[in-house]
Amino acid sequence: MNPNFSKALYIPFLKNVMVPLGIWFIPFILLVIVGSSNALNLTDGLDGLAIGCLAFSAGAFSILTYLAGRADFARYLGIPFVPGAGELAVFCASLVGAAAGFLWYNCYPANLMMGDIGSLPLGGALGIVAILIKSELVLLMVGGIFVWEALSVMIQVFSFRVFGKRVFLMSPFHHHLQLKGWPESKVTIRLWIVAFILALVGLSTLKLR
């Protein structure tokens, strides 16, 4: 690991506010990578849902990475400058392109399925990009759909084991909406809309500081 790499947690919406993690930095980045990987995996339960949300998240990070790699923009926006981060913009843009190409065949009714072999590394890649540009908390906003899907599973399991009651009709949350009577395509498109809005919210942290 580069000894000059910042081991602090930067707080969105606040200029030059950071929390030094010290020895907790390694456990923290493992949590981010494993969490983002499994969160996207849990979201991959309906045709086109996970890959569509990923396209919006990767699109937002393609902008964030480009700005983080430009010293002038980073200084103006009050975000950490990460030399070479501009190269990650190409990677994130390629994720958007790959997601769009895959969505052509994965949209309802799907001809191709992503499965664990796609969702786990794609989620992990998103987490790694967030770590490299010091935007781990922004990832919580941009990937809000993934976060909520994972939380819905944890809430359901905790509630059932402790209280013997289910909070949702089924988890992850997209299955709850299905059992409420929403058609699969309606669930997917509406969660895409939320993912797009959350991507804009994540980008708004650039100026709301």
- What are the low-pLDDT stretches, counting only 5+ consecutive residues below 50? none
Helix content: 55-70%
Number of helices: 9
Largest sheet: 2 strands, antiparallel
The sequence of SSEs as H and E is EEHHHHHHHHH
**Structural class by sheet pairing and helices:** mainly alpha
Q: Proportion of β residues?
A: under 5%
Number of strands: 2
* Broad shape: globular
Report the average pLDDT across residues: 92
- Rg over C-alpha atoms, rounded to the nearest angstrom: 18 Å
Task: Tell me the strand order in the biggest sheet.
Answer: 1-2
Write up what this structure looks like.
The protein has 209 residues and is mostly helical. 67% of the residues lie in helices and 3% in strands. It contains nine helices and two strands, in the order ββααααααααα. The chain has helices spanning 25-43, 49-68, 71-77, 86-106, 116-132, 136-142, 144-163, 173-179, 184-204; strands spanning 8-10, 18-20. The chain has a two-stranded antiparallel ribbon with strand order 1-2. Strand 1 (8-10) and strand 2 form a beta hairpin. Helix 1 packs antiparallel against helix 5 (116-132) and helix 1 packs across helix 7 (144-163). The radius of gyration is 18 Å and the shape is globular. The model has no long low-confidence stretch (mean pLDDT 92).
